[in-house]
């Protein structure tokens, strides 16, 4: 049927007003620079002042009313064409009606004639004269053929700013696009707009444009007024409709959380808005029970509710809960239709209804246990988004879009405590710190914090009482059913217990699940971070008896072909099904060519277990059974094997990575009063680790715990006792114990060594050598007291009939060189020669090599060969940078080399030189400025050593004072008067009483000279 004239005109006006509305939206979104209002059907004046009322349909103007963009809209029926002359005539009228406009546009839904399309391309011509020539070609036979020649250059340049836009959108398509743009703009301002209300608003704004086209408001629609109309309050729109038609929540959607977590909500928003127009985008929220997944999902729902017409909340815990939830959804979508009783039919019906809906929707499926259970229910097409919460990280491991929900940020956790407990009291800095401590103690776990606050409030205790009952609060609150907040089905203990039950229930068909449940118990007694997977695996599966019987030598990693009930990776996977463990950083990051001999591939794989989960598991293990004792004993066996292997292989990186787990096991054993043979060995190895780090007080405590157990053991363990007593004696001596205290341990060690010499000669020889080193270090340059000499004679007599390894001989040689430098009973050149010979020995341990290098540097310093000394000192410094081990060796090197360097440099300071001449009464060596780099390197090394480690070596006294003295000397050389005064003042804080000893003459003279020089400089100011 042919279109009637009135209908065509109405259709044309409708199209014009919709295009005008689109221009208003463009200006509102700042797509047109400088636009402040739209002028609709303006009165147009040509250049010759003749009125042209139809030249401009609408224009965008700035604050001053100056035209920014002028437009003419032309519509036509299907099949019509716009010729080049018609298009040219419209554009010509536009540029003459609005000569000041920045841009011009002819907008049409009419198909362009090929020459009209060529005209549009010609408008891109860069040169006005070239444009004139092209226009003359295009218009040569039309009614405008004379105009191109008559046009001024200015008019041609205006025409170059004009364009023809062809718009083939149907009216309904244009309306839909406008509706969606308005919805988006309103959603950005959290105003909301549903499908029906968007249509109403579109019609209303089109009517407002029509009013202005007919002359109301002088044709002006300011952007300020347009925004007011566009963002009219949702309540007002709902009132007009009779109800809200957007943000409708179907199902038991929780209230928004009191403490928002905007970072997670932002991640969800980004994840869900990256899909196509009719492709359903899914996002999985993953994390352990009680971490706040449901709360975060609810926060997202309430934050973006205005963006969706419908929001469906689904219980995804089981097939039955899914079916019940989808029945509710079906009833809402089709209230008068009966839902299919068959789950498959119901599922397909709801999926179809959602796929054909033009209304945007969001579906939240909460607490999904298994991905395979819920996937058949998920709609795959439609204008929707799906948000899923689950503890099962394995099910969703391959899902494209995941968001990990982890513990709260410290500030969020503190804010939650303040909200729950701070209403009735003034909140001050003390309250903030107490809340921060409580949050940290609860590991920033949302459910743990809610339970603790509920428990405190239930007991009528305030935050001020939290510090006194911190441990008790954690122990009681985590299983306090009365304190469970709304939205959480279980206490934290209950949730973790339920996770264990689920793992054990799957054990018959999936052995790794049962293994994972049992693995949580040794994991609970390790440190929470970087738990080695293979150590956990063996601690779970293999008793110490079986490991000893088959000769396990740790660290062990099974070959992939080894037949086992389940692999270590299957165990890890099972833990992740309940979000009870996470992959952590590897133990070691060294390239493979730098691996030690005890570094098999795969040994670096680690996981982390949250401390609250560990605490709950320990609570279950310590319920009165022997579980904790058995777990600690078996885990101690494997862990000390790892530690000992890394110590013996000089594998510092692995040693330091495993040490926190050894410390954690020892701490829990002491807390529970558990003591076994395996734990005794663990204490001994832990003490050795502490000694390597210079933590002598901790080493003493570990050795005393080991010795106490050995002495109370039903059957004696003489070899363990021998090793423990020899180590303890050395630690006691270095921590300042009286000789009679630690000598008694060496005497007992001597008796045990005699007893075991024939049965364990190699091991006894090494221990006896250590005992002799302890005695030699004690006596030094002084004559040994008769009891000490007698004990040394006994040990030497025993040593002579025992075998020696090359490593033991090297250690004795090192001891001889130490005493040779100290007693000056060997030429320095000979000490150097022996050191260089020792360094060629590949059997030296890292500690022995470090000791020999320091002795070589000392010997070179005594020879005043400063460049050679500096080179070897750089090697020592590099070790210090790379490793915190062996601080005693470092301290001795700093002490001995520092004295020689200090004396050499001080001779170049005039005031020090004067003091030395008085003391020595003779000719002094010439100043040696070339040793200055040595002083800089020594002071750099001092800055890298903790103050407490500068006093570890018995017999090396006043080291902190001496190092500060070198700082003062450095300031004197630099003539830095401010630093001289500062360092001189700080010297008074350090003990220097032992400088009066006869063995300290060198440091004493250096101290007198440097301090006198500093006083002189301070007094004279130069």
3D structure, described in words:
The chain has 43 helices and 17 strands. The longest helix is centred in the first third of the chain and has 24 residues, at 5-28. It is of the alpha/beta class and 1022 residues long. The N and C termini lie far apart (111 Å). The strands form four sheets. A six-stranded mixed sheet has the order 7-5-3-2-1-8, sandwiched between helices. Mean pLDDT is 86; it is low at 45-50 and 241-245. Helix 32 (761-779) packs parallel to helix 34, helix 35 packs antiparallel against helix 36 and helix 38 (887-906) crosses helix 43 (1001-1020).
Q: Decide which structural class fits the backbone.
A: alpha/beta
- Based on the structure, what is the oligomeric state of the protein chains? single chain
Low-pLDDT runs of 5+ residues are 45-50, 241-245
Can you count the beta strands? 17
State the helical fraction: 55-70%
Estimated share of beta-strand residues: 5-15%
Report Rg. Answer: 43 Å
Amino-to-carboxy terminus distance: 111 Å
Shape: elongated
- Individual helix count: 43
Biggest sheet record:
6 strands, mixed
Widest sheet: strand ordering? 7-5-3-2-1-8
Write down the overall mean pLDDT: 86
What is the structure about, briefly put?
With 1022 residues, this protein is α/β, with parallel strands linked by helices.
